[in-house]
Amino acid sequence: MSANKQPYVLVTGATGFIGAHVVDLLLERGCKVRGAARNMQKARQMQDARPKYADQLDFVQVADFTGSSSSFADAVKGGIDGIVHLASPLSFKPRDNEKDVVLPAIQGVKSVLHAAAGEPSVKRIVITSSFAAVIDIDRKESTRFTYTGKDWNPQSYEESIDPKTSPVLAYRGSKKFAELEAWNFVNTQKPHFDIVTLCPPMVFGPMRHPVANLSELNETSDALWQVASGQGIPEGITFCIDVRDLALAHVEALLRPECRNKRYTIAAPERYTYTMAADIIAEEFDWGKERVVKYGKPQEFDETCNLDGEEAARDLGIKSYRTFRTSVVDFVKQAVEMEERGI
């Protein structure tokens, strides 16, 4: 990004949980932002909630993020300097793993890359991948090991699309092969732009995106609300990051020249479980002890591995990661306010 002009950034998935935080940080940094959205009603809600930035924020509708390679052709026109690609399909009840999960994720990345390749102004694309593209569920070592940006999920394409494969494993495959599509494109096509990929685990924290009611919560927020509202204790995956820290990582990855063509795992050093969330809610809220689900044995961490967040913190200027307690409390406050308003 040029230091001499106001960067103009396209954010896909701008009306989503992570995307709205990225949009706000970019606006605060003085960037112009174009959000790509399927739903223009949510786009207008985003704009109406940010009157201070009326001259900096615009939206374009991309009805099908996973359609043809021309899906984003118009979205990148007009002097876009950088792209943050957050949009990705998520289906927990696919009828066909390949058609409903894997191919849409790959095609979404391809669409962005091909559109950027036709627009000389684009300098960098930051792509939100996932710890799902990193994890090896069969990895066993004699001592605790650490996942880094050098690690890849060994799951094959064939396994990912197999009808017998669970939706969770199909999703992991979709994130792996979508990210690989990006790296293969850069390595073979040698475009005029570079990329940075971020591989976060579970993402928690407060919401900045349009949410009509509590039934529309994103996956991780819904899991915390299940705990807070006494519905149950979900299963977790040990590693997490606050959405505000992840948004900062996206913005810094976009703006820092030295991050060129790097792949980062990014996570807080603290581990989490949903029984921890139950304890936090019981301690922090007057109503907590009576409402959260009573559980017996606390959930256990996966003690066999770590997930590196130090390299990302160092390179991206994250001074310290927010705690899981902070993420839980800040979200639950919001959710309770929504409940009290009857939404």
Automatic annotation (TrEMBL):
Q: Which UniProt keywords apply?
A: Oxidoreductase
Q: Which residues form the NAD-dependent epimerase/dehydratase domain?
A: 9-209
Q: Name one GO molecular function term.
A: oxidoreductase activity, acting on the CH-OH group of donors, NAD or NADP as acceptor
Instruction: State the coiled-coil residue ranges.
Output: none
Query: Does the record's keyword annotation contain Protein biosynthesis?
Result: no
Fetch the InterPro entries from UniProt: Epimerase_deHydtase (IPR001509), NAD(P)-bd_dom_sf (IPR036291), NAD(P)_dehydrat-like (IPR050425)
Pfam families attached here?
Answer: Epimerase (PF01370)
Family to which this protein belongs: Belongs to the NAD(P)-dependent epimerase/dehydratase family. Dihydroflavonol-4-reductase subfamily.
Q: What is this protein called?
A: NAD-dependent epimerase/dehydratase domain-containing protein
